[in-house]
Specification:
heterodimer; A: alpha+beta; Alpha-Beta Plaits; 4-stranded antiparallel sheet; 2 helices; 36% strand; B: mainly alpha; 0% strand; elongated
């Protein structure tokens, strides 16, 4: 397994939810996702998951989100390992449903000493 | 790390199964809440299963999640609280943890009950069809529109009509009476027949898509025929006709998706086992005193399946079945088909004689079917001028390139073909 780890954050436009997928489409997504998982099993460190609601904790106290004035919402995350940023991008880009109209993924190198 | 594959159509069939089971528990008036809960459970499953792998019993897992989701939603709808209490006594188990095992028979009963509920005479038949495709077969709106050659807006409209009727079904009457079951059986058979013909007769170029509708119709009809409610000769004849048609389906196209005439088809490609199944249903259907249109149509299909070649077809028997069909279910299409069979049996002039003096309704007169049959019969009678006139109409009205190619092959008369 490559050493360098990358944090992938799914960003999407709020409210930009498309039509609900039909059961047949869901089955297709299931198959594609598993194919992706298998292809990049060496790279996937932590499948992560969806990020739900939470709170912002600061020196002034605890407040509700949204946490920053952002046009986009971080909907989920995962951690992959790769030899380079390019390779990490390739893994993230291949993940079904992650990159689509109205949503994208931010890939950041995790600098561990 | 390999993830187990799910059986084909797992999500779609689970959708139908869950909608049926849950709407039988909370009442069909809540069908929209049920469908939302099922949709949401499937989405949850998609996320959970791709992350953590499949649970031991995916169907039970789904039922539990959908059931909890639905109960939460119905509890929130304060006005519905009373309904919940009313139905609580009838709720056949499955609180928070849900039953781990479902008796196959119970699921089939729920599917059937929902099918009968869909076939409410107060719902227009085209809405019944869309409702069954959506709730029992688990097709999405876009998929239904694609299969029925209509717009998504139209599918939504038909669904809305059906649902608004279901909302008015008084609570607790989700249980149909025995009388309602038998009085709705013809409507249920009709819906299954429509579902099948939508696939079988469709001019859709993709065989897989058409085949899917036929398979769904056979699946539901088989459940119906196994149940005391549906054990009627008419249902058996319907199943016979479905199997006998489906067995020949793949042979109707050549390798590149072009359509083949019956006489051009490679009979080796016919599914012998499917034909046997069809014939055994046909044998079971031969009792009672009611000869239905399904009996007549299955009879015609059986004659074609049993004929060793096009030339050796027992055309007299085919003609007999078409005559019966015309009497039971009068339609100019049946007359036209009889004319074709008579032409094979007694020659083209006799075929033309069947149509002599017959004024086709405008929808038929303007269709390629009418023009193509007349062009063919006149050509074989040697009436070249009339044949060419009809042939040109047939070419002009051919609905798809595949049909047009077939007509061009069949209706060659030696004169140049207008494109």
């Amino acid at each position: 397994m490559p050493k360098q780890k990358y944090l992938c954050m799914q960003r999407s436009q709020p409210g930009g939810k498309g039509e609900k997928p039909s059961p047949a489409q869901m089955q297709e997504m299931y198959a594609k996702f598993n194919a992706w998982k298998e292809k990049f099993q060496e790279n996937i460190v932590d499948m992560g998951g969806q990020l739900k609601g939470g709170k912002l904790v600061t020196s002034e106290g605890v407040t509700d989100g949204p946490f920053v004035e952002s046009k986009e919402v971080i909907g989920g995350y995962m951690i992959v390992s790769a030899e380079s940023l390019e390779e990490a991008i390739e893994v993230a880009r291949g993940c079904p449903g992650l990159v689509s109209p109205g949503s994208g993924v931010e890939v950041r190198e995790i600098n561990t000493p | 790390m390999t993830t187990p594959k799910l059986v084909e159509h797992f999500f779609r069939h689970e959708y139908g199964r869950l909608v049926a089971m849950l709407s039988c528990r909370v009442g069909v008036q809540n069908i929209e809440a049920v469908e939302d809960a099922v949709q949401s459970a499937l989405m949850t499953a998609l996320r959970a299963w791709t992350h953590a792998g499949l649970p031991d019993n995916p169907s039970a897992w789904l039922f539990r999640v959908a059931h909890n989701e639905l109960m939460g939603e119905l509890r929130q709808q304060t006005g519905r609280r009373r309904i919940l209490e009313q139905n609580a006594k009838e709720d056949r188990g499955a609180p928070e943890n849900g039953p781990e095992i479902f008796l196959a028979g119970e699921v089939r009963d729920d599917l059937l009950r929902t099918l009968f509920v869909c076939c409410d005479e107060a719902i227009p038949v085209e809405s019944q069809l869309v409702l069954a495709l959506k709730t029992l077969c688990g097709f999405g709106v876009r998929e239904i529109a694609l299969r029925l050659f209509t717009s998504e807006a139209n599918v939504y409209k038909r669904l809305a009509r059906a649902r608004s009727r279901l909302r008015k079904v008084p609570p607790r009457s989700g249980e149909l009476t025995g009388e309602q079951y038998s009085s709705r059986l013809p409507a249920v058979n009709k819906i299954l027949y429509l579902l099948f013909t939508e696939g079988y007769l469709s001019s859709h170029t993709e065989m897989a898509i058409r085949r899917e509708l036929c398979d769904e119709a056979i699946r539901l009809a088989a459940i119906l025929a196994e149940h005391p409610t549906g054990q009627a000769p008419e249902t058996f004849a319907l199943l016979a006709l479905m199997h006998l048609h489906a067995a020949r389906m793949t042979a109707r196209q050549d390798g590149s998706g072009g359509l083949l005439l019956l006489e051009e088809q490679d009979r080796e490609l016919w599914d012998r086992q499917g034909i046997q199944v069809g014939l055994s249903w046909l044998a079971r259907s031969a009792r009672g005193d009611h000869f239905s249109r399904y009996h007549a149509e299955a009879g015609i299909a059986a004659e074609h399946c049993l004929a060793p070649s096009f030339q050796e077809t027992r055309w007299d028997k085919v003609v007999e079945c078409y005559s019966l069909l015309e009497r039971i279910a009068p339609s100019p299409i049946h007359k036209l088909n009889r004319a074709v069979a008579v032409a094979e049996w007694q020659g083209p002039a006799a075929g033309l004689a069947v149509l002599w003096g017959f004024e086709p309704p405008t929808w038929l007169a303007g269709s390629y079917l009418w023009a193509a049959v007349l062009a063919d019969l006149h050509r074989r009678c040697g009436n070249a001028q009339t044949a060419i006139r009809y042939r040109d109409v047939a070419f002009k009205t051919a609905p798809t390139p595949a049909v047009k190619a077939l007509l061009q092959r069949r209706l060659r008369t030696g004169s140049p073909v207008p494109m």
